[in-house]
Design goal:
The complex is a heterodimer of chains A (about 325) and B (about 350). Chain A has about 325 residues and is an alpha+beta fold. Chain A has helices at about 40-50, 90-100, 105-120, 135-150, 165-185, 195-200, 220-225, 230-235, and strands at about 5-15, 15-25, 30-35, 55-60, 65, 75-80, 155-160, 185-190, 205-210, 210-215, 240, 245-250, 255, 265-270, 275-280, 290-295, 305-310, 315, 325. Helix content of chain A is about 25%, strand content about 35%. Chain A has a six-stranded mixed β-sheet, with helices on both faces. In chain A, strands 13-17-14-15-16 form a five-stranded antiparallel β-sheet, with no helix packed on it. Chain A has a four-stranded antiparallel β-sheet with strand order 2-1-4-5, covered by helices on one side. In chain A, helix 2 (about 90-100) packs across helix 3, helix 2 packs parallel to helix 4 (about 135-150) and helix 3 crosses helix 4 (about 135-150). By secondary structure, chain B is an all-alpha fold. Chain B has helices at about 5-35, 40-45, 55-65, 70-100, 110-130, 140-160, 160-170, 180-190, 210-235, 240-250, 255-265, 265-280, 285-290, 300-305, 315-335, 335-345, and strands at about 305, 310. The chains are: A alpha+beta (about 325), B mainly alpha (about 350).
Chain lengths: ~325, ~350
């Protein structure tokens, strides 16, 4: 089991309000990603759930029990830190066994569970080493091993991949998703990387300045963003905003042609990714637009082009930045 | 680009370092030489530095006159127990200041609140006086000191932020110890205990003068500010994330301190212990004033040889050598650790 519910959770340091009031229900077995720009309060929200920070007011329930005043050790959650936070004076074996020792499990059972976790994480050859002798990816696996070994109610991930290089990050991302599928436990994952959010999440929670802007599945957020902020944050490259930020259109929903179209522009720059080409176009009064074209397109900088936006995929925003649905 | 240091400059620095080193070492050298001379040779000026006949008799006489090993034992008890007791208080204190600092200060106490605290303290003093039939005995003086100074001082410290608290602790080391001698002497002295006359707590025979019961806590308290400061700078170097990981892993406060923090900070704790050991070993002011037989440490042992009947240089030197020998040896073998401890946290 692992349902988590937040009720009017508020956090302030003196006069500085970090989180004005967050309400959220996380279902058992869900993979929820908190995403937002740096300083939006996503890590603080995670640490409040973990119990590492005290709430100013509000209530957090885990499996229906109020844990507002429970210390982190009593909440039954496991956390994977960005810095790995391994115990440098212990071997990998003892690092993974630490939570079990704290739970006063018999030694035989500890050994069996540690070996099983090491098997899962491919750490068998490193059990007697110390964290200082491991590579970044190996350390990250030890940190995950320490989290999974005692079957927590939920996993909390605090930007766990941001210290890894790009190739390893993709592998670990897939590994964590596979692990989540196998274990089936609730996971909360904090990241500032919207690609990670889109690929991993069952549901994404977009945070902006401590407010929860929108909660929804990746495709919901992509197709029906509730606000200018969410529209701009989800999707890569970023959505184009025209007409004083009242209309938004994604780069992939604009058709490009050399002959005819609605909007005229001049190619400034093209980025060739092989499968796609991203064109940065100066569209005069409409400003700079990004357009996704197929990989074969080879518009040279300076070429005059015509663009036709897909009307049905346009997003309309009010002055307050909220979406107007038509 | 690394700065190039010319050979001549290197030579100059080396010479200056040697001169300063020799100047500092000279008194110890003199003591060491004098310890092996006869009384009259040791006293002669100008000294015949190396030409006198050497003798070991001073050491024999010193051991005969005063039981050296008893003093070594006393010093060891005071030094070791006070260091251990100090760690018991200093580790949690430094832990809380390093990992849960309070930038705002505790609850602010208004001026009206302070008035209440002072008046309340005075009222308690009057109650104490009343129970004592209006006689201002040592007991009442003790209570007065406690409530007029100690309670408001600790409340003040509690209302401050961590930074101020650390500075305040250090400031206690700036006060000349003689300033606290009289109250401490009264507390140590027989009849000095606060509740002495109250019947329901008859600790009448209580006397911590010249006892380990007095010297160990005293030595702990003397060095506690420095111990907390040193541990604080060490703990500051440990990423708080590791302690948070321990909390997430279900570690209780005790396990967090004993199984994660302490082993990680072990080098720092060792250096701190070493410094504390040296400070308490060499402590003389309080030892000379508050002990004379049962709990007298080595500093008292040395002072025995500086008597009104005259200065016995050779024996005094022999006693000094015997007193500093153990700590000198410990210091020699732990130089590396010690230097690291003293300069730790200085660069960053």
């Amino acid at each position: 089991m692992g349902t988590i519910s937040l009720n009017k959770v508020r956090k302030a340091f003196g006069d500085a309000v970090i989180i004005p009031g967050a309400d959220l229900e996380i279902k058992n077995g869900e993979f929820v990603v908190f995403v937002g720009p740096s300083g939006c309060g996503k890590s603080t929200l995670l640490r409040l759930i973990a119990g590492l920070e005290d709430m100013t007011s509000g209530e957090i329930k885990i499996d229906g029990n109020d844990v507002t005043d429970t210390p982190p050790s009593g909440r039954g959650l496991a956390m994977v830190f960005q810095s790995y936070a391994l115990y440098p004076h212990m071997t990998v074996r003892n690092n993974i066994a630490f939570p079990l020792k704290m739970a006063k499990m018999p030694q035989a059972e500890i050994d069996q569970k540690v070996n099983h976790a090491a098997q899962t994480l491919n750490l068998n050859d490193y059990l007697e080493r110390r964290p200082g002798q491991l590579s970044g990816g190996q350390r990250q696996r030890v940190a995950i091993g320490r989290a999974i070994v005692r079957n927590p109610k939920a996993f909390l991930f605090d930007e766990p991949l941001s210290n890894l290089d790009a190739a390893l990050r993709v592998n670990m991302r897939i590994f964590i998703m596979q692990l989540h599928k196998d274990l089936g436990s609730t996971s909360i994952y904090v990241t500032h990387d919207q690609v990670e959010a889109m690929t991993m999440a069952d549901r994404i929670v977009v945070l902006n300045k401590g407010h929860i802007e929108q909660v929804g599945s990746p495709l919901e957020l992509y197709n029906k963003p509730d606000s200018l902020f969410v529209a701009g944050f989800i999707g890569s490259p970023k959505m184009n905003f025209v007409e004083n930020d009242t209309i938004g259109i994604r780069p992939e929903h604009i058709e490009i042609s050399e002959k005819r179209g609605e909007w005229q522009g001049k190619v400034l720059l093209s980025e060739h990714l092989g499968s796609d080409t991203f064109l940065h176009i100066d569209a005069g009064a409409r400003g700079r637009l990004t357009v996704r074209a197929s990989g074969e397109n080879t518009f040279a900088p300076g070429t005059n082009v015509w663009m036709t936006p897909d009307k049905s995929r346009m997003h309309y925003f009010g002055k307050d930045g909220r979406t107007i649905r038509k | 680009m690394a700065r190039k240091i010319s050979n001549r400059r290197k030579l100059l620095t080396t010479i200056i370092a040697w001169v300063i080193g020799l100047l500092l070492f000279f008194p110890i050298f003199w003591t060491a030489v004098a310890a092996f001379k006869t009384e009259s040779d040791a006293y002669t000026l100008p000294q015949n530095w190396l030409s006198t006949p050497w003798t070991l008799e001073n050491f024999g006489i010193v051991q005969e006159r005063s039981n050296y090993f008893r003093y070594v034992f006393n010093t060891s008890v005071i030094v070791i127990l006070s260091t251990l007791l100090g760690l018991v208080f200093a580790i949690p204190a430094a832990w809380s200041m390093a990992f849960a600092p309070n930038p705002e200060g505790g609850s602010k106490i208004s001026s009206l609140g302070w008035l209440g605290i002072v008046l309340g303290s005075l009222a308690i003093c009057f109650v104490a006086l009343y129970f004592n039939n209006w006689k201002p005995t040592n007991a009442v003086i003790g209570i007065l000191l406690l409530f007029i100074f100690v309670v408001p001082a600790s409340l003040w410290a509690w209302s401050r932020n961590t930074h101020n608290m650390l500075l305040w602790m250090l400031s206690t080391k700036m006060m000349p110890p003689a300033g606290a001698l009289i109250p401490i002497y009264l507390i140590f002295n027989r009849n000095g205990l606060v509740f002495r006359d109250w019947g329901w707590a008859n600790w009448g025979d209580y006397n911590i003068m010249d006892s380990f019961w007095g010297m160990v806590p005293l030595m702990t308290l003397l060095n506690l500010p420095i111990v907390i400061w040193m541990l604080f700078t060490y703990f500051k170097e440990i990423p708080v994330g590791i302690l948070e990981a321990a909390r997430m892993d279900g570690a209780s406060l005790w396990n967090e301190l004993s199984r994660v923090l302490t082993p990680m900070a072990l080098p720092g704790i060792a250096s701190t212990c070493l410094l504390n050991l040296i400070l308490s070993w060499n402590e003389a002011f309080w030892s000379l004033n508050l002990t004379n037989k049962y709990a007298a440490p080595l500093s008292f042992f040395i002072s025995e040889y500086s008597s009104p009947e005259g200065q016995f240089w050779a024996k005094l030197s022999a006693a000094s050598m015997m007193a500093i020998a153990p700590i000198l040896i410990i210091g020699w073998f732990s130089q590396k650790q010690l230097v690291r401890g003293l300069t730790f946290g200085a660069v960053k």
